[in-house]
Protein: SIS domain-containing protein
Organism: Kineococcus endophyticus
Amino acid sequence: MTPRFPDGELDGLRARGAGHTATEIAQQPGLWPEVADLVGGDHATASWLAPLLAREDLRVVLTGAGTSAFVGQVLAPALTRLLGRAVEAVATTDLLADPAGTLPGRPTLLVSFARSGDSPESVAAAAVADAALEEVHHLVVTCNADGRLAAALASRADARVVVLPPATNDRGFAMTSSFTSMLLAARLLLAPGAPVPVAELCAAAETALRSAGELAAVAARGHDRVVLLGSGPLAGLAREASLKLLELTAGAVVGLHDTALGVRHGPKSFLRAGTLAVVFRSGDAYTRRYDDDIAAELRAALGERDVLVVDPALPDGVPDDLRALPAAVTAQLLALRFALAGPGTPDDPFPGGEVNRVVQGVTVHPWQP
C-alpha cells in the first residue's frame, strides 16, 4: 500500500509539518481492507468471543480515552441494535475516576481501544476492572503490539489482544487512521453476522479525499468556531470531529459538539455570525429528518455557505456507525485544512509539550473495592 494525498502536495505538507497527518488521513481506504482481512482471519478471537456474546447476563462495555473512547460512542448504539442487548460506552477516564459508579458487579466484557496502549489510564482501567469485578473478560483492540496494555493482557486466558496493521499506529499527534481502523475492527469482531460493505466504504472515503480542495476553501474563510452535530452513532463522530479541530489547530479553532435535537437546548447560544456548522447526516430515513431540520435552521441563521452537510456517497441501507468511517475522513481533512490555514504544525501542534501524543502527568491512585 502506497499512501498518497489527492492533491499531489505531500512534499509541501511535509514542509508545513503535516506530512504524517496528511499521509495517515489519505491511507485509510487502503488500510480498511487490510483490517477486514486481519479480523476475518482471526478465528481464535472469533471462537473466544462467540460464547461470551451469547450470554444474556454479560455486560458489554466499550472503553478508551479521548479519541479511543469515541470509537465506543459511535459503536455502542449500533451494537445495541445488532446484538439485541445493551452495549455501553464508558471512557477509561470515567471508569478510573469512579470505579464504583461505572463497574457494577456483573460479569463484563471490557473492550479496550488503544492506539498506543501506553496511556496511563489504559492499563489502570483494566486493572481496576479486575479488582472490582468477580468476572471480567478483556478484548483489546490496539494499533501497537508493544504497548503496555497489550503486554499486560496478551498471555491471559480471560483476554484477547487484537493488534491491527502497523500503519494504523499513527505517527502524527492526532488519531486519524487509528480511529477508523479500530472502529471497523471492533464492528467486525463484535457483530460478526452483520454485513460490512468494505469496498463501498473505501470508495466513499476516496470520494471524501477528493473534496480536500473544497474544504481548504472553507477553512480559508477564517472561522474560529465550529458547531458539529450528529445523531445516534454520529453523535460520537461529532465529538471526535470537534476534538480533531481543537487538537490540530492547537486550540485556535474551537469546536462544539452536540446532537441535531440537543443543540437547541442551550448550546445554540454558541452560534454567532461567522460560525461554521457541520451536520453529519444520518442514513436512517427517520433520523435524518431531524438532521435536515437543524441544517435548514442553521442555514437561515448563518447563511448557506456556512453550513456543511456531510453525507457520504454510500448506498441506501448502510448504517450510521459504518457511515461514520468515510464521514470521519471528511472531518479529519477539514481539521487539517483549518490547521494549515494558520501558522501551526499539525504533526506536532504543541511543540512545547503542553499536550502530548501519549498522555502524561496522570497519577494513578490505588483503589480498593
About this structure: The longest strand covers residues 108-114.
